[in-house]
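Dear all,

This email documents one entry for the complex benchmark we are building for the journal club exercise. For each entry we list the sequence lines for every component of the assembly. Then comes the predicted three-dimensional structure of the complex as a token string, followed by one or two observations. Please use this as the template for your own entries, and keep the labels exactly as they appear.
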Amino acid sequence: MNAAGTLPAWAALLTALFVLIGAAVTLIGSLGLLRLGTFYKRVHAPTLGTTLGMVSILAGSVLCFSVLEARPVVHEILIAVFVTLTTPVTLMLLVRAALYRDRTEGSTDVPAAEVAEDLIPPA
Amino acid sequence: MSWFLPYPLLSAALLALWLLLNQSVSPGHLVLGSVLAVLASWAMAALRPEKPRIRRPGAALRLAGMVLIDILRSNLAVGRIIVRSREPGVNAGFLTIPLDLRDRQGLAVLSVIITSTPGTIWVSYDAAKGTLLLHVLDLIDETVWVRTIKDRYERRLMEIFE
């Protein structure tokens, strides 16, 4: 890429810093997937990548392309909005599926269903 | 006005989305985006969803700012647990919180806030009893978590939506 050469030093440094922070945070989240023990604990780890990790990498992108094209480039905001709105839905689905499985198996590690209806799969 | 723009906020958001995607505020895109936004809001009206009422936009903005700071802080907290702790997640556990919030939109926003904050996950909500089941990665003091959710988020969401 030739474009990176025309980026002023301060912008290149800041962009690198943002991308590095985002990558590091996402890496720590992935490390959490490895280190945490149970399914419920593991679900917490990837949220690092979908919050601070994502925002930091997007900030780097906004800065880099705004400086390169000499105009505000902010459509990355849409990525942030859609990731923030969609990941919770997926995570909640996964957790509820796990809870349903554990409850039907009679696991004692999860709180028991308070109403019997919870265990009947929806028709 | 209400037949033409049944969901003004939705239409405005769609227009903003169109302009951002095209990275342009030229008259052509403004017209095209507006037409699409109005048509989409009519399609939405055919589904007849409950119309959310945001009573206090100022409070909503303050809540959004607070949530951003909380997400940043819990990122650091969860990161520290993963990297530093010898046995990460020993304090994890489930937590039941009685909620007073009943508004569906309010509950939806609360679930997004809780789940996108690292360290807490919304597990299930019992509409009949109004209790919420959470899983928390660092559950040392239950009362602190209950107070955080109720005072920081639930009270403000009730101000905004109820």
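Observations: The mean pLDDT of chain B is 88. Strands of chain B lie at 93-98, 120-126, 131-136.
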